[in-house]
Structures are given as structure tokens and as C-alpha cells.
Design brief:
Distance between the termini: 75 Å
Structural class: mainly alpha
Oligomer: single chain
Largest sheet: none
Helix content: over 70%
Length: 108
Amino acid sequence: MDAQQKEEVEVFNERAVRRNAANIEYCRTSAAAVAGATAGIMGLTGLYGFAFFVAYSLFLSVLLTVKVGSHWSKYFTTRRALLFDGIIGGLFTYVLLWTFLYGMVHVY
């Protein structure tokens, strides 16, 4: 056999990959809700609020990376999926709760 024929092919269970992606999405959305509520109650405005989102997002990515460890390839097809998927959806949730709670606490 040639060296090309001996190459191993990675096979992923599509249902498991989708479930893992959905779990990451759920985790990011839930954490974004808590972070947005925190930013609103703290009274963050403007760039400080968005900097808080970036800090939360980086912190959550580090926590997920630590949780998965060096075996990320067992659960995700790419490392990008672990680190960045769900950030935009989380941003919308963050902004929604940030502005709502800021208005409820500091305006009314």
C-alpha cells in the first residue's frame, strides 16, 4: 500500500457535532444574558459596555478551552467552532439586556 492509502480518515457523528455546537450556543447566550444584565445594573455606557462584552467573551472562550482541554478535536471539527461560534447571537442578547436593565435601573 502507498503512504497515501494508509492515511486515516476522521469520521464525525453529525448529530453529536450539532449537539456540541448547540451546547456552545446555549452557553454563550446564557452567559451573555447574565453579562448584559450585569453591565446594565452597573451602569456601563458606550465603549465601556462593549469592552465588558469583549472581556466576558474572552473569559468564556478561555473557560471553554480549559474545560475541553487538548482533546477539542474529539468534540468539534475546528477550534474556531469552540472559540467563536455563537458570539454574534450572544452580542444581540447582551445588548438587549444591557439596555433594558440600564433603563430600568438608571433612567426610571
